[in-house]
UniProtKB/TrEMBL annotation:
Protein name: Putative activator of 90 kDa heat shock protein ATPase-like 1
Protein's organism: Penaeus vannamei
Family: Belongs to the AHA1 family.
UniProt GO molecular function: ATPase activator activity; protein-folding chaperone binding
Lineage of the organism: Eukaryota, Metazoa, Ecdysozoa, Arthropoda, Crustacea
InterPro entries, sorted: Aha1, AHSA1-like_N, ASHA1/2-like_C, START-like_dom_sf
Domain Activator of Hsp90 ATPase AHSA1-like N-terminal positions: 29-165
Alphabetically ordered keywords of this record: Stress response
GO cellular component: cytosol
Length: 347
């Protein structure tokens, strides 16, 4: 076993709560099957689907939920496996025949990570009620498929939120906070981003909206011991961004989509996303004058034994250049390397 400060950092057992598997560089796995079954039941049981003038349909029970869900981590990459065959029992009352129950099943036979929620099949059958249930079945088949698919999307989102981030563990010096089963440290406050933040805030406020702002351009280059795909994922996959920022984030990963990091202290929107090659953002500190954004361009280039990220940021208020540089180094690059082991040599 390597001593502290020696050897490959991915394999050192640091002074940390679990004392093993630093940054989960080894394969680690969590079984999410039990949690998933309860979550699926809570999402569907009791759900009401109503068509005015026709019927009110209530999903009474998830009578079948066969399958499994696993969450794996390898070298900082989160992998979700789930495969479910779901059957739900429903009962309907038609408005013109309120005393007669019409019963049937809704089945989802192919819920897995191989299909997007909008691609899953939803089949509907009637088991009681005879021909009176035909129009109810047609209503469920045509108009309620999207509702069912939306609930499936809620399950997938909850699965990733519940099980992803605590597979990537904190390193030495990082506090371990248990909240909603997610291991996170408190997000950096505005003051923690730089020792000069107070002065900078005052300077920004003195500028005022509508005043001319003297701006500068920042150029930084950083190398990571990982692939271009690894670093692109670290910057765009929500669970990985949560891991290295150690706080909740908002990411809408489409052109024009918004993002917020570090409790809203950094925000902006995506202007261009080219997987494994380039990310372009409108980017601002919360303390900058309202409406003022810089433009951040992250060019990602795969090298023979590493990946180079070249950052160009234009429109940075000149009084805030040093804080911005320090923020990229401390809260992005260094944190990514510590969290995912991207500062160590590839093997």
């Amino acid at each position: 076993m390597a001593k502290w400060g020696e050897g490959d950092p991915r394999w050192i057992v640091e002074e940390r709560p679990d004392a093993t598997n630093v940054n989960n560089w080894h394969w680690s796995e969590k079984n999410a099957s039990g949690w998933s079954k309860e979550k699926i039941k809570s999402l569907f049981e009791g759900m009401v689907l109503e068509e005015p003038g026709l019927a009110k349909v209530t999903i009474k029970e998830v009578s079948k939920c066969d399958g499994e869900a696993m969450v794996n981590n390898r070298k900082g990459k989160l992998i979700f496996f789930y495969e479910w065959d779901i059957k739900m029992d429903w009962v309907a009352k038609k408005e013109d025949e309120p005393k007669k129950d019409i019963k049937g099943h809704i089945q989802i036979p192919n819920l897995s990570e191989e299909n997007e929620p909008c691609e899953i099949d939803v089949s509907v059958s009637v088991t009681a009620g005879g021909s009176a249930g035909d129009d109810v079945k047609e209503f469920l088949r045509k108009k309620c498929e999207k509702v069912i698919q939306s609930k499936v999307a809620d399950y997938i989102t909850a699965l990733k939120r519940e099980y992803a981030t605590d597979l990537i563990l904190p390193t030495k010096g990082q506090a371990v906070t248990k909240q909603s089963k997610t291991i996170l440290s408190p997000p950096p406050s505005e003051n923690s981003l730089s020792a000069n933040v107070t002065n900078t805030t005052n300077n920004m406020q003195k500028m005022g909206l509508g005043c001319k702002i003297d701006t500068s351009q920042i150029t930084l280059t950083e190398r990571f011991k990982c692939t271009a795909d690894d670093i692109y994922r670290a910057l765009t996959v929500r669970e990985m961004v949560v891991a290295f920022t150690r706080g909740d984030v908002k990411l809408d990963l489409v052109k024009g989509g918004k993002f917020e990091l570090f409790g809203g202290n950094i925000s902006g929107e995506y202007e261009n996303l080219e997987p494994n090659k380039q990310i372009v953002q409108k980017w601002r500190f919360k303390t900058w004058p309202s409406g003022h954004y810089s433009t951040v361009t992250l060019d990602i280039q795969q090298k023979e034994d590493s990946t180079e990220v070249r950052l160009t940021q234009s429109g940075v208020p000149s009084s805030d250049v040093d804080r911005t540089k320090e923020g990229w180094k401390n809260y992005y690059w260094d944190s990514i390397k510590r969290t995912f082991g991207f500062g160590a040599m590839l093997i």
